[in-house]
Amino acid sequence: MEVVDDDRVITTKRAQVRQILERRIREELHAGDALESERELVGQLGVSRVTIRQAIADLVEAGLLEKTQGKGTFVTGPRINSRLHLMSFSREMRARGLKPRTQVLSAAEEPASEEVAERLRIAPGDQVVRLERLRTADGTPMAHEVGWYPSALFPGLLQHNLAAVYDLMVERYGLDATHGEQSVSAEAADMDSARILGIARRAPLLVQERLTFADQTPVEFSLSRYRADRYRIHSTLLPRAQARAEDAAEHPTMGS
Questions:
Q1: Which CATH class, in words, describes the domain spanning 10-75?
Q2: How is the chain split into domains, by residue range?
Q3: Which of 80, 182, 209, 250 has the fewest beta carbons closer than 10 A?
Q4: What superfamily does domain 80-249 belong to in CATH?
Q5: Looking at 101-105, 111-115, 151-155, 199-203, which range is the least confident one?
């Protein structure tokens, strides 16, 4: 389909191109398919490269396309809807029919910073295990996670498989994660997160900060940075009386 040049403003051409490309994405292409090059689209649609570039940028921002440096522009997969509850990444991905994978990027013992010590209710300088991991779903990078675990509660933790920490907590240390406190914020990806997640620097991220308890004992403090183009948070708002009743009735548990 050709976009006819006339006296309309550039934004109208941009909107036309965006609509054409969006229709192709939804009706003809699949997740992982490559979009034609800018030069090919210029020839097909009869508009300037600037207009093509702007329309593609709109679709990247909308989460329908993603740019991979040196490779091109690709159709994204569907976003994962995550509820605000205590469920592990692996269990959540499996529940959605996706294959989760955890790659341990680094693991070491270090003195707790003041912030980490305050969250874990230990003294600054006490030893903690710092664990950095990359989470993927069907091979797509989803989250960059850093967690801290009190060494006093988990002696010898570094000797074990750290892909499934919650399983270790229960099976090796007899600590079952019973509940947690979590907050969600937004930030732009820095160079480190962009490199690990395979996204552009300053791309939007959802940041989940979580403090996990075994009964009343903090066992984990974690920061997880999720790709905003692949992940979104879903919550159900309840009347206060119903929410209090449900909170009193149950404490959700965490999986591996």
A1: mainly alpha
A2: 10-75, 80-249
A3: 250
A4: Chorismate lyase-like (3.40.1410.10)
A5: 199-203
The pLDDT score that the predictor gives to residue 4 is 43
User: Residue type at 159?
Assistant: Q
Task: Read off the pLDDT of each residue in 190-211 and give the average, rounded to a whole number.
Answer: 91
Q: Distance (Å, rounded) from C-alpha 230 to C-alpha 76?
A: 8
Task: For residue 147, count CB atoms less than 10 angstroms from its CB and return exposed for 0-12, middle for 13-18, buried for 19 or more.
Answer: buried
Return the amino acid letter for 120: L
Token pair 């079952």 in the structure block, residue: 176
100-111/231-234 β-pairing = unpaired
Which residues, in sequence order, are CB contacts of 67 under 8 Å at separation 6+?
56, 60, 73, 74, 200
Of the candidate ranges 116-120, 209-213, 250-254, the one whose mean pLDDT is the lowest? 250-254
What is the pLDDT, as a whole number, of residue 114?
A: 97
Concatenated DSSP letters for 48-97? -HHHHHHHHHHHHHTTSEEEETTTEEEEPPPPEEEESS---HHHHHHHTT
Cβ proximity of 123 and 130 under 8 Å: no
Task: Locate 220 and state its tokens.
Answer: 């984990």
